Structures are given as C-alpha cells and as structure tokens.
Amino acid sequence: MSRSLLRIARQCACVLVLAYAPLAHSQASPPIGLSEAIARSLERNLDLKSFQFDLDAQQARIQQAGARPAPDVGLLVENVLGTGERSGFDSAETTLSIGYSLERGALQRRVDAAQAGGALLETDAAIRRLDVAAETARRFIAVLAAQEALTTSRSTTKLAEETATAVQTRVRAAKAPQAEQSRAEAQLARVRLDEEHAEHVLASAKQRLAALWGSIQPDFTGARGDLSILPPLEQFETLRARLDQNVELNRLVSEKRLRETEARLAEMRRSPPWHVTAGVRRFEDNNDYALVVGLTVPLANRDSWQGAMAEARAQSAQVDARGAALRVQLDAELFGVYQELRHSYTEVTTLKNDVLPRIEAAVEQSRYAYERGRYGYIEWVAAQRELVELRRALLEATADAHRQRIEIERLTGVSLATP
Q1: Which of 7, 223, 261, 338 has an alpha carbon within 20 to 30 A of 327's alpha carbon?
Q2: 98 located within any domain
C-alpha cells in the first residue's frame, strides 16, 4: 500500500512540475513587443557592430586629414674635397636649415573631403539601422502570424475532436456507417499533425527573430501584439510626400557633397604647395655665420590634374542623375506596394465582416443537420474545411497588410508602427 501511495505522490509531483514549468518560464522571459525587439536588434546586431569599425576608421581618416606636413631639416656642405684651396674642408660652407610646406588651403580641403566621407558613412549606417529595424519588424510579424496559426490549428483540432465524437455517437446508434468514423479519426490525425507542424514553424520564427540580436536561442516566450488591429489607411499622396525622407535619397545628398568636395580638392592640387626654408650658414675659412632664407615655388602644370578634376565633376553629375532615377523608382515602388496594401485591407474587411460569419453559421447549421440525419458526413466536413481555409486566408491577408505597411514605412523613412 505504501508503494502505491509513493508512486501516486511521484506522479502528482511530476504533474505539478509540468503544470508550473511553463508559468515559471513565462515569468522569467515574458512575451516581447515590437519596440523592444527593434531596440534589442539595434543595440546588439552583429552586423551593425561590425560596421561601427568602419565609422571608427573614418574618424581616424578625418584626424589624419587634419595633420599638417612635418617640417624637414636639411644639412648642406659645399666647397669641399675640391682642388687647390678647396681640396680639404678649410673653405667649406655648411648650411643647416629647416623647411616648411605652405599648403595654402589644401589642409582644409582634405579635412572637408574626409568629413564628407564621414557623413556618407553615417548615412550608410542609418540605412543599415533602418534595414535591421525593418527586418526585425518582418520577423516579429512572422512570430505573431505563427502564433495565430498555431491557435487556429488548435481550434481546428478541437473541432475535429468534436466531429469524431459526434460521428462515433451516430455510429454507435447505428445511424451512420462505420466508414464515417474511420474517416473522422483519420481527419483528426491529420489536423493533429498540422498542429504539430505549426508548433515547429513558431519555434523557427522565434529563433530567427532572436538571431537578429545575436541570441542563439529565443530569450522570450512569444510576441506581444494583435495582428487583427490595422491602423487607418492613409492617402497615397500623403505617403508620396514622405519620400523625400527616404534614407537612400539622403545618402545621395551626402555623396553629392563628397563629390563636390573632391572636385575642389583636385582643383587645389593643381597648384602645388610652396616650400619655404630658413637656416644658418657657417664659413669655415673665417668662422663667420650668416642667415639663409629660401622660397621654392613649383611651376604649375594645369594638365597634370585635369583628368582628376574632370573625373570628380563627372561623378558629381552622375549623383544627380542617379538621384532623379531613384526618385522615380521609389515612387513607382511605393505606388505598387500601396495598391497591394489597399487590396489587403479590402480582403481583410470582406473576409472578416462578410464571409467569416456566414461560414461559421454554415458550419453550425451543418452540424445541427448532421446530428439529425439531414446532412451526411461529407457535407459537414466540407463546411468545416471551408472555415479552416477561410481562417488561414484571413490570417495571411492580415499579415500581408502589416508586411506591406512595414515596406511603406521603410520607403518613406518614418518610424515603424507597433502592431
């Protein structure tokens, strides 16, 4: 008797552990919201951390561009090892001098070019951050959709269990053939398999989301949000006006500044820097000293930098052309996504308000008729199948609407909305 009680106690303990383990896990790692997911990705994403080294390297280039040329020290010995009175060092003239390069504005041009390159890299960093945020939102929507799909699969399983029970009742009462019970049990096995697959899909979606902030396993139980809530649909012209905030267009603005700065730097290099020297000369024959001052002015060669200047001007003009082409491309892309978004909104509204209530009513009516022998098993299951397919279609249309909104927000450069 004591062994039986001990075995029962152990079984109860196992049940309690299994019952409270999900609760403890949820308390340790609660569901995550979209804003928190984006914040984690922007803070911990490994690609963004890697790009930070490019920004650090550019800051070093800016620092190096501001470095002035080091002075040079020269030692010149003349009138030695000759003939006659100058055969030795008695008539030597020794000059010790220090020289400086007069860049005449080239230093500031180099700093401007380096800073323009830094601004371009900062824009690239902003593009990368926006891409990471958008990808986080997409994967977050995927987790929400997988959660809803799992809920739908569980509802389908429950419906199949109720159907199998109802069929079994009619078979026992000899009001339906045994084949209907076999088909109902087979259908139940299939929907349970679909539910198990939905669990795997959800686990993979959470894993892919956590990978964006460098986690090898999800550190959250799920995503917090409601896909069925869609923000009001804005007018297309309102969204089109925001295209000027597109980060890729802003990048071209930064690149334009860089090319213009490079053109000015190439023009400055057409006139080489002057070189000024100053020093002291010693005359060995009478031990006298004298100051020496010199100025070296290189002869300008206008042809030497004509190619570089032409290249800089061509690249600057190319940026303008690319900007015009990108503006047209973005406008066309925004229009296409907006049309898909409108269709998704219409599809969600129609399925939710017009189709779903009628199909749900048809399923109940089919069940009522089957239990009273007015409908066969095939008609009842067909109505159930339509309901399941409709719920999946509604879920996919809702998820598509959120994905399309994310794409529009990426194109227009506005902050991502929380579903």
Answers
A1: 261
A2: no
